[in-house]
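Figure 2 data, in text form.
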Amino acid sequence: MPFEYKHLSAEERAHFVEHGWLKIENAIDPKYLNEWMENLWVRLGMDPEDKSTWMYEYHKLPRHREVLASEFAPEAWAKMCEIVGGEDKIDPVRERYYGDQMIINFGTEEQVGKSHTPQDLVGWHTDNDWYRQFLDSSGNALTVICCFTDVPANGGGTSLCEDGIKSLVERFYANPQGLDPPFANIYSHCKTASSFAEVVAKAGDVLVTHGMLPHSHSPNHLHYARVITNPHVNLSEPFNLNRPDGDYTLCEQVILRNLGRDSVPEYKPTRERLAFYPRTAFFKREMVKDELQRMVAHAEAQGLPASSVDSVYLKGEEAIREHERRNGYDKAWGPTGVAVTMRDDAVNYMPEQKKHVLV
């Protein structure tokens, strides 16, 4: 029996299959928009009114708070479930909770008034840094962009390379042995692509993108703090690219459309599937201690106890270990180790022991 869509319109389904993304306006519960933005500048250790204190152009924070994705953005969650073929297809543990791992694009004074083209960008990637990637891998079936501030034109919105999916799926089809991150040189085709979209949104909007849609942050020519988070939807089983009834999920349709195929019955992975510690989590989690110190000092300056600080890292080992399990931090290092800088391919560092509880 064909899958029944109750939340996605025919237009929305067609847009996702053709472009690889969908925008859902005013989707985030305002409670989390307000609460999670309240201490952003304390966590950063910067003054929002003094741009001379803005020490970064682009910065990624760790996660302290998290809530069920279905509570964080109910309408968006309902539509994401339909994109992947139903909530029962989604991993029951991994990234079921969305959190406050903010990504801030500050820009610089030197960029104000300038412009760029998508072909100028150099940071094209997909968020598959914690598993061996095959054509049918569904680890990050969807990459999600949650807007905590308005994102006006030229304001550092994420750039999406719509016709970049084709080269990626062709490459993974041609490499049934799978590829391990970091994925050097597999996004070079984005420099010569022709179909792009740049995120322009309001605070509270959510953009849902296919996991194989290459994306990159763009220069912030307005020199303000653009704030997003970047969670995902992970499936329990690989995509099925050979359904006898042809009732493919929207995610599967995107892959087949870009391959120009109705099915790929001949495709079989030739190596084992691997899942491991996220490569890019390591350097972000190194910031936790300093952020906690700033948040506790700020609370105490207001006459509040340290226990008033809302962070999973202050809730005891059991809470922290559950947080680690939800986000894959309990897994072993991958075959190429972890990244210790924002440049994922800067170094293949293999820590001597696992990164565990931080209190």
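Caption note: The chain has ten helices and twelve strands.
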